[in-house]
Amino acid sequence: MRKIYFLLITIMCSIFSFAQEINGTIVDEFGNALPGVNIQTLKSNKFATSNFDGSFTIQGSIGEQIKFSMIGMEDLIVEASQNMNVTMLQSVTELETVVMIGYGTAKKRDLTGSIVSIKGEEVADKPNNNVLSSLQGKVAGLSVVNSGQPGSEPDVRIRGTISLYQTKPLYVIDGIFSETMDFVNPNDIKSIEVLKDPSSLSVFGARGANGVILVTTKRARNGETQINYNTTVGYKNITGKPDMTNAEEFKYLYDMQRANQGASPYPYYNLYNADTDWVNEIANDNALFYNHNISFSNASEKNSFYAGFGYSNEEGLIKNELYKKFTASLNDELQVTDYLKLGVNVNFLDARLPRLGGFNTALNTTPLVAPFNNELGVYNQLPTDMGAAQLGNALLEVEGKKGTQLNRNTKIVGSVFAEVALLKNLKFRGSYLASLDYLRGRGYLPVFDVYAAETDELVHYSGNVLTKVNQFSNFKQNLQQDYTLTYQKEFGKHDITLLAGHTRYNEYLENMSGTVSQYAPSYDDDGIDTNQIPNDPRWWYLNVFPYGDPTTRFSNSTQWDRATMSNLARILYNYDGKYMLNASFRNDDSSELRKDQNFWAVGAAWEISKESFFANKYVNYLKIKGSMGEQGNQFSDLHYPTYPLYIPGQSAVFGEELVPAYILAYRNNPNLEWETVTSKEIGFELGAFDNKLSLEVNYYDKTTNGLIAFIRGTDNFYGNLGKISNNGLEFVASWKNTIREGFDYTISGNLTTLNNKVHYLNDEGYDYVSDPTRTTGGQPISYFYGYVVEGVYQTYADVLNSPISTVGDYTVGDFKYKDVNGDGQITPEDRTNIGNPTPDFTYGFSAAVNYNSWNLGVDFQGVYGNEVFRNWGNGSSFAQFNFRSDRLGAWTGEGTSNWEPRMNDASGYNRLTSSYMVEDGSYLRLRNVQLGYTFKNEFLNNLKIKNLKMFINAQNMITWKNNSGFTPEFGGSPTSFGVDGGSYPVAAITTLGINVTF
């Protein structure tokens, strides 16, 4: 009987739990009641509609998920409770999207310039620890050159190279100015805005010329409590491995080379008879990559809280490289009263940095040597004639020095703000922002014995007999204060937003580094040096008592600080939704210069499609726009360039006392100003065929006037002495279409042309040289400079009929250099532009398909028309290193080759910097492929999960390229980039991932 009662009670409870009435009210984000909202219980599948006052009643159970949907509003799913207060957000089109514009926001439709907004979900699940890497190929005008090294920062440029000292844009993360984005967890990002045009950049004044990338991190959504977990795990591998000779091929070429020099075949092949692929020896195949991210968010009418935590573990493509990173973020906003809001934002990074290496030594090392001598238990030294003086044992560098460098980076970036509604349409916001960056490290140089087969003895590796310790510490502190007044008012057909602000920015850096060596070796009876510093991190300090020899201790320090103070103003005006006007002004005062500077911009746009005379059944949206203005660039290679700097000069003796003398490092120029970049843009935006087609075309022109240059000569000084221009076209197009419910696709692409020119630099003929690049007037910045190879001399008659050379002797089989100036001689004056590292255009295109719960995305990215300089593998050196396989086609007689010269490393003539080392840098890369599956609600309801997605991602799997190296993309400085040192490939990465929300 008891069981029957229990069963009846259970049944009644179940009936009661499902028969409850759930009630509540629904409003929009402004508190207005929403009638006609469709309401559905997802478990019991009951339906209802909200009343005219937004109230509703529906049959359901407490805790059950309820879906609210309405045309024009975003769908919302929440857990059922009694007396529910539901807030729905307006569903906006892409044009109505609110984007960040610096010190504020604006609707994309109201902009007069080019701001590209990227949603956080587009970068969250990509296998890149630095979010900038995921932007490659996504944005017209944005160049991202990636490196495969763990923890490395991409080379980022917006609309060209505009200065001799700085290329990277300004990063603004939740209002905080930053020089890097390594501390930002991609999973915590809500949106990224790339600012390119003058109307959006001039408000940043002397920091805006290189462009700005704004990052907004996630906040909690009102009415939701949410836990999200995202993880990816996968592996990385080398792609594009260069073709090098094996042992037999190397012997063939090396003996040919010796024969051409009049020498007999190499006599030690019996000692060096291995066939080693050095790249394979040091490569870390299937390098592990994984990350875990979890976030918590909760929001009510008064408080919004978000916290995210991430952990990444990334092995490098070289053995024993390991990059670990922990990130944390916190956002909390509290609406204290109707007129006062307070907020805090904190980002934290703690990274363990690897001891980075490269593959250039592995590429250059002869295959004849085995890395390790198993019989003696030591590593082998390279042959004397094959690079022993220039190259180390690549495997020893990787394995023998494992764990001998401990580097760590800790960064805290945060802000607090108060926002006060002074009047109905006027608000004041005060923010205090700070960035503290602490990079430190300790390392150890051990002593190794290696086997020299030629002399059959053990010798010290690289001739080093002393153990050594290094230690460094780098502290960077940025403090920022922003105070802004914003007035926003709509009256009639007018919509106006006014901004006035005052901001201060302080930077401080201190750096200390040093080394110390052990005392002179003292060997015991077993031949052990008792004075060696122990290979134990406990002893890796400069004051390493009792091992460190104080007389060898060397230290150095650097420190500087600077400050800027700025006033800014901006107006955004919209009349009748058709005519837009933006204007901005900023005044910057810097401690490094002796006078302030003004920057400004104005932009206008006309939405023609809203005019009564415009009636086109195909075109839904058409806006023409234009802007112009001035931005600044505050970077030089020295702080306080207008103030005296003294360096040691000649000393004098007074009696028995030596008195040092100091002289000016350069002549002071009190009139020096920051560079001014005058920018112009004109373009249009189009939406057609029911907005399935979107098209945007922009022409841009950026001209740097007053280019800062340091002139070296008899009179060293800084001056505003140059002019650089960058101009081109940007095309962005997409096609979105829905085949039927649950089946849609998107095809999109972008292309940017770029023409870069240095108009002048000081006096005619003055140049900046960073071999093999050169920057001078009349040429693109950082072009490759050398001799033009017209072929290879085939006969002695050809040699006799050719110009004489003042740069070296040549004979048959050597390069035929072009007599560029036509003076009948080959002289240094015949060097010319042999390649441009700046591409003619960059592009990216993608396709995405959504079919029910499946989604597939494919991204391609590429560049065209640039060159890269090969600085390895018979480039600047022909001899003792390993040979590229192309050298198997070297000239051996008339007609055998007209590009690969004869084998003869003694001929310095063939080693001159020339177009032989220049290769086509154009490429097309399958950047990303991702297949995902999102589980349906009926499956998730039983697990009490709001959202669950699983995906597989493949990145950089195929690259169609023409150069010899691992990769065709190489960053660098403004005056030296595009140089292939054979150092590191961009990895192919395959990952599996899961994203689940509770």
Automatic annotation (TrEMBL):
<keyword id="KW-0813">Transport</keyword>
<dbReference type="InterPro" id="IPR008969">
    <property type="entry name" value="CarboxyPept-like_regulatory"/>
</dbReference>
<dbReference type="GO" id="GO:0009279">
    <property type="term" value="C:cell outer membrane"/>
</dbReference>
<dbReference type="Pfam" id="PF13715">
    <property type="entry name" value="CarbopepD_reg_2"/>
</dbReference>
<keyword id="KW-0998">Cell outer membrane</keyword>
<feature type="domain" description="TonB-dependent receptor plug">
    <location>
        <begin position="107"/>
        <end position="212"/>
    </location>
</feature>
<dbReference type="InterPro" id="IPR012910">
    <property type="entry name" value="Plug_dom"/>
</dbReference>
<keyword id="KW-1134">Transmembrane beta strand</keyword>
<keyword id="KW-0732">Signal</keyword>
<dbReference type="InterPro" id="IPR036942">
    <property type="entry name" value="Beta-barrel_TonB_sf"/>
</dbReference>
<dbReference type="Pfam" id="PF07715">
    <property type="entry name" value="Plug"/>
</dbReference>
<comment type="similarity">
    <text>Belongs to the TonB-dependent receptor family.</text>
</comment>
<dbReference type="InterPro" id="IPR023996">
    <property type="entry name" value="TonB-dep_OMP_SusC/RagA"/>
</dbReference>
<keyword id="KW-0472">Membrane</keyword>
<dbReference type="InterPro" id="IPR023997">
    <property type="entry name" value="TonB-dep_OMP_SusC/RagA_CS"/>
</dbReference>
<dbReference type="InterPro" id="IPR037066">
    <property type="entry name" value="Plug_dom_sf"/>
</dbReference>
<dbReference type="InterPro" id="IPR039426">
    <property type="entry name" value="TonB-dep_rcpt-like"/>
</dbReference>
<protein>
    <submittedName>
        <fullName>SusC/RagA family TonB-linked outer membrane protein</fullName>
    </submittedName>
</protein>
<keyword id="KW-0812">Transmembrane</keyword>
<feature type="signal peptide">
    <location>
        <begin position="1"/>
        <end position="19"/>
    </location>
</feature>
